[in-house]
Amino acid sequence: MSTNGPKILPMTDAALATAADEIVHGRLVAFPTETVYGLGADATSESAIARIFEAKKRPRFNPLIIHVADAKQAEKYVEFDARAKLVAESFWPGPISMVLKRKPGCAISLLAGAGLETLAIRAPDHKAAQALLQKCGVPLAAPSANRSGQVSPTTPQHVAESLSDVNDLSILAGGKCTVGLESTVLDLTGETPAILRHGAVTAEDLEPLIGPVTLPGADTGTDAPKSPGQTLRHYAPDLPIRLNAVDVAPDEALLAFGKTKFMGLRGGGFANDLPDERLQNLSPVGDLNEAAANLFAMLRRLDDSGAAGIAVMAVPETGLGLAINDRLKRAAAAQNQPAPLDQEATRG
Ligand code: TXA
Ligand code: MG
C-alpha cells in the first residue's frame, strides 16, 4: 500500500480509465463540474460513501448530491414526476439539484442520503464529469471536494490543497469551474416547490415552468426557521434509543460495536442469545468505516424487528465515530421532542 497524497490527473483517455477504475473499486475520485469540484464515490456502495465522510472530516452525516448522466439515469433511482421532467428538460445538464423521493428498492446507498426517503440528484454540465459518469456506469455521490468548513474548490489545485492528507486521492483535472458556486437545491417532494439552497438557477427561472417557488427563509406560517439544516428532516428510528448500553434487556434489540461476547442479557444469559433479527453489529472488528457504512441499514432493520427499544453500545469518539455518535445522539434526542410542524408529513 502506498501512502501518497492526492495526484492531479490531466484529462486524457488514460486518466479517465484510471478514474473510472478507482470508482468501481470503491475508491474516491475528485472530478470537475460546472459548479465546483466534487469528491466522488460510487453512490451505490455504502463503504465508498463512508470514505467520503472520512476524507472530508465531516462532523455529521449530511446527505450528498447524487450525480447522474441524465434524466433517464435519474429515473432509475427517484420518482421523476412531471415537475422534475420539466425542470430537467430546461436545466439539465446544469447547476440545479432536485430533491425527489427514492424509488422502492432504490440502489443508492442509505448513508449517501443520510437515511432519508429522499435524494438530491443532478446531471452536471461538464465534459469530464459526463465522461466519468459514462465510463464508470454508476451514479456518483459527491459533496464539494473540500475539507468540511473550508470554501468549495473551483480548481484541481484547490482540491489538492484542501484534501492534502487524503491518501491516493485521484483528482481529474478539468480546468476552472465556470459557475463557481454550488448548485441550486430545489425540493420537489412537497406541494409547493422550495429552494433549499440558492444557486445559478433562480426562482425567476423556475416559476414559469412549475409555478410559485418558496425561498430559504420564507415565512411558512410557523415559527420554524426555514434555513438549510433546519428544514432538512433527519432520519430517526421510531423505537426509543438507549445509548452507551453495557447490557441489554430481553425485549430490546442491540446495535453492537466490536465484541459482544461479554455483553450480558438482563435476567441471565448473554446478548448473543438474542434472536438474529434483534442483534446487529456495526463492526465486529471495531472498524469505524465499516460501522458508518452499516449504520442506517442496521438502524432500520432493528427498528422493524418488533423489539421495545434499541440499546446501542458505545462507539469511540474518534474519526468517523464522531459522525456516528452525532447521528445516534440526534436519534435518541428526537424521541424526547415532537417533530417540528413542517417535518411531520414525511416522517416515519
Ligand atoms: O454544486 C453542487 O451541488 C456540488 C457539486 C459537486 O455537484 N455538490 C455539493 O454537495 O455542493 P454538498 O454535499 O456540499 O451539498 C449538498 C447539499 C446540502 O445543502 C444538503 O443539505 C442538500 O444538498 N441535500 C442533499 N440531499 C438532500 C435531501 N435529501 N433533502 C434536502 N437537502 C438535501
Ligand atoms: Mg459543500
Commentary on this structure:
- With 348 residues, the chain is of the alpha/beta class.
- The chain is 27% helix and 17% strand.
- It has 9 helices and 16 strands.
- The strands form 3 sheets. A 10-stranded mixed beta sheet has the order 1-8-2-3-7-4-6-5-9-10, with helices on both faces. It has a 4-stranded parallel beta sheet with strand order 11-16-13-15.
- α8 runs parallel beside α9.
- The radius of gyration is 21 Å and the shape is globular.
- The C terminus is likely disordered.
- The protein binds threonylcarbamoyladenylate and magnesium ion (MG).
- The site of threonylcarbamoyladenylate (TXA) has 26 residues, from β5, β6 and β10.
Across the major sheet, the strand order is 1-8-2-3-7-4-6-5-9-10
Largest sheet: 10 strands, mixed
Q: Outline, from the CA principal axes?
A: globular
Q: What portion of the residues fall into strands of 2 or more residues?
A: 15-25%
Q: What is the H/E order?
A: EHEEHEHHEEHEHEEEHEEEEEHEH
Distance between the termini: 43 Å
Low-confidence stretches: 221-231, 339-348
